[in-house]
Amino acid sequence: MFSKSNMASFVTEVLASSGKLEKEDLAAKISKLSRKVEETKEEVCDMINKRYNEFLPSMQGAEVLMGQAEEVSKEIDVLKSCIETEVQQNLHTAVTEYAKLKQQLERNTTVIAMLRHLEEFHIAMEEFHKALLEKKYVIAAKQLEKARHSADSLKAWKGSDLPLLRALSSELTVQRENLIYHLGDEWKRMTVWKLPPSKGGKLHFIHATKDTGSVCPSILSEPTEMKSFLKTELQLTLGGTKEPGQSPPPLLSCVLQALTIQGELQHKIKLFSQVLLKYLLKPLITYPSLNVEVSEQQDEGTLISLQFAETPEEHSSPSQVYTKVLMVLKTLHTHLLDVSVGERKVSVILGDLVWQDMSHCIIHECLLYSIPTNSCQLEQYSAVIKETEEFEKSLKEMQYLRGDSTELLKYAQDVNCHFASKKCKDVIVAARKLMTSEMHNTVKITQDSKLSVPMLPNPGSGDIKGKQGAKKLEAPRLDNEKQLGARTLCLPVCRISESVQQLMELALHTLSEAVGNSSQCATQLFFTVRNIFQLFYDVVPTYHKENLLKFPHLAAIQHNNCMYIAHHLLTLGHQFSPHLPDPLSEGAATFVDLVPGFRKLGAHCFLAHLNVQRAEMLERLSTARNFSNLDDEDNYSAASKAVRQVIHQLKRLGTVWQDVLPVNIYCKAMGILLNTAISELIAKIMMLEDISTEDGEHLQILCQTIIEEGPPVFIPLPEENKNKKYQEEVPVYVKKWITFKELVIVLQANLQEIVDRWAEGKGPLALEFSSSDMKSLIRALFQNTERRAVALTKIK
Fold first, then answer.
1. CA-to-CA distance for 440 and 556, rounded, in angstroms?
2. CA pair distance 700, 705, nearest whole angstrom
3. What is the pLDDT of residues 766-780, one digit of tens each?
4. How many CA atoms, within 13 angstroms, populate the side-chain half-sphere of residue 262?
5. Which of 724, 741, 732, 602 is nearest to 671 (CA)?
6. Which residues, at least 6 apart from 517, have a Cβ–Cβ distance to it below 8 Å?
7. Cross-strand bridge partners of residue 233
């Protein structure tokens, strides 16, 4: 270790060289100085290492070394100045030598600067420990930052002593965690949470848990019942209450600022906000029976707790939610968060963390359910808009909310759109429920049946020009003008599903909601009604597909349902178009384009079921053994059974469709099925090559059975006396009916009678059969005789 006298003599020798210095003498002096610098560095590093790595107290020795380093630094500055002067005077002769000397001197200067940083680190750490013991957390945090800066400066130089730097970094880390622990401990004393029990039944106290950087998952898990939230409490103990306008308690401000300096405040407030949302704000928003209570407890601070209040409401009103949330946030602002850290307040940090989740919860748990369900309540919603505006204003005054954040107010002001969206959603849900309900519950549609159309305003009322225009459009009355009946365009009498009638009423009610509403809202509601019918078109045939093919009653009802909807779609747009805003009133409000699709859907559904019935009928007739060899008892029994089954099938269908299908559709459907049966029978008989007398008699009996029992299956109306008319019109609906009757006549006629009914191709028989078919039938019925040959020559 150098003494002060030795150091002074060394400097004196250097300064004594006046004028031109000798190069050899200067080099020797620099070499001597370098050795001293290295020795000083080793001693300082040894001291720092013992202090922060080996933990040996050497305060006094460190001070002596630091003084020694300062004196060496001064000598270096003087020598550096001399060298620069000498180099400039002798630049032309000693550039190389002096550059090397200067480089060596600069390295020594660097070492001295490193020693200064070590000194600054040591002083900062000593001040940190002193401030931490005195609970001067802001000073402690600042001193720790100074020490960190010194350590970072040392790391920036190459050739630094790595073991020493590791010791300094380790010390910094340990002391930073120590400070954060103390700050966290102070924070937990100020904000004591008492939370509902976990699944194990144990109450949680946040202040008693170890701060590991995250909240325990069991704490943030949702309680299963609303009443469990009643055990939630937040106690704010800040060493006395803070009145509005007063500065925050010194310890609170000190802790928050220290956390800010260390970059931990955001993390602390984030954890606090998570618990605040889970256990206070969201329960108060979600459950209308929960209320908040704030009480001042002597020497214990302020207590925020939840109370139970019985209420029949399923959802809180916006005013109730705003009141409860503001009570919590105002209490926190008054006693905890009204503290400035840097250029902003802590309430700003909390607001940024909770606002998005809180506003989302308010919208989906409160405002969504406050949207009116019908248009007449929309005007009353202005009160909710005003309450929302006041709520956001209060939050901005407490700096929880930034000036550009107005999510709640925007949602409330867009009530027309939300009303339309909610209405559309409810309508679609209700419509789908009706579509998937049972179809067999029916109502009878008569010519006097009318849907309850809501009262619509008269578009021409009070409009003189409109009345004059209406008068001009009136057509002149002609004396002999024929007038259409009042029921000309009415839907035929039939039965439809009760759910379809309700569906149409739902569509009418939805369109009436669009009347007098904004253009956007009206357009949304109008297209929702169109979507109802599109949904019916897609859902019902698929959802009821198996039943529509299996049950004739449902197939007929579905046919009527589609025709009923198509009938009303023709005029539905015209009914509402004059009362709707633009562009709907200009011709866009129409449903006519959907009419062909619904008619086709109804017809396709019923025809598909008719094909199923025809297939069953043909399958039954296929068991008749081609109606051949009926003189055999088994063959005749099989044929008779097949005919009886067909007649029974027709009777069953006639009964099922009675008073369901419109009369004309009923008669056409029954006619198609009966025509299928007799066409198959005619084809089978015409294919026979040999019909004995006994076979002919049996065939005639079977055919006569169909002729006698076929017409009685036409019973479209419940009143029997009214069905005779349609039974007499069987030939109109059964194309092969006359052909079938002629065939029966031929089966029991002789050759002359057949020739007479042919009448040279002009008789009734010639109208139903071709000459080749009749010749084949004659050959099958009669033996090959001269009379048959003569008869065949007359069939031309």
1. 10
2. 9
3. 999 999 999 999 999
4. 29
5. 732
6. 375, 416, 420, 525, 581
7. 194, 305
- The residue assigned the tokens 């107290």 is 57
Helix axes 498-514, 519-543, angle to 10 degrees: 170
d(CA 571, CA 568) in angstroms, rounded, equals 6
Residue 423, both tokens: 């209405």
* 287-296 per-position pLDDT tens digit: 999 999 998 8
Closest to 129 (Cα-Cα) out of 53, 173, 137, 149: 137
What are the structure tokens assigned to 445, written together? 């549609």
Owner of token pair 């009070």: 462
Task: Compute the CA torsion angle 476, 477, 481, 486 (nearest 10 deg).
Answer: 110
Q: Is 194 helix (H, G, I), strand (E, B) or coil?
A: strand
pLDDT winner (highest mean) among 187-196, 455-464, 482-491: 187-196
Residue 419 CA to residue 625 CA, distance in Å, equals 69
Phi/psi of residue 350, each to 5°? -65, -40
Q: Which helix (H) or strand (E) holds 529?
A: helix 519-543
765 burial level (CB within 10 Å; 0-12, 13-18, 19+):
buried
Residue 519 neighbours by CB under 8 Å, 6+ apart: 581, 582, 583, 584
Q: Peptide bond preceding 583: is omega within 30 degrees of 0, i.e. cis?
A: yes
Cα(607)–Cα(702) distance, integer angstroms: 28
Q: What is the pTM of this model?
A: 0.65
The residues, any chain, with a CB within 8 Å of residue 760's CB and separated by 6 or more, are 794, 796
Considering only CA atoms, give the Rg of the chain: 52
Report which residue type is found at 27: A
Which of 241, 265, 246, 245 is closest to 254 using CA atoms? 265
> In the prediction, which pLDDT does 50 show?
72
Residue 341 forms beta bridges with which residues? 344
Mean pLDDT score of the chain: 81
Q: Which pLDDT band holds residue 372 (cuts at 50, 70, 90)?
A: confident
Lowest-confidence pick of 297-301, 363-367, 676-680: 297-301
Which run of H or E residues covers position 304?
strand 301-308
